[in-house]
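Sample pair:
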Amino acid sequence: MNILPRKFYDADAEQVAPRLLGKWLVHRVDGLDRIGRIVEVEAYVGPHDLAAHSSKGRTSRTEVMFGEPGHAYVYLIYGMHHCLNAVTGPGEHASAVLIRALEPISGIESATNGPGRLCRALRIDRSLNGHDLLEGELTIVQPARQVPRFKIAAGPRIGVDYAGDWVHRPLRFTIEGSPFLSRR
């Protein structure tokens, strides 16, 4: 497996998001690799995107989004669910891609169809906020074996009704027909 290089993430979130589909998210916990194939993502394109956390400005919570691409942005929603994003864009672009759903590949014993569920299944929490996805226990990789061809579908993001016109933008990308999506 080849870890995705920094230059992979150094582009607009809307470009990076569909390219993440089919890649594997790997979290090594207690010597065990928990691996899932990315089947659903959402792009958050920067401070002008009213659904992006960075639209509220630079805060202690969003600081990692304003940094170098290829780092994990992990936050807690509803006080109980962690969500994992890959920071994208050149320099302080403050954009990221939310990993919404995985197809379990290895070492995963619970549901991964939703951002909170996949973080729980892979044991991802705020301790990984700011983690460099190019090294260590949490990485995104190109699988070693040939990835079957798939069709990408685009549609509106989920749960951003507060974001004005941004609610209808087709920034959610899925592997069409995957049974592991958070919503079909």
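The first strand starts at residue 2 and ends at 3.
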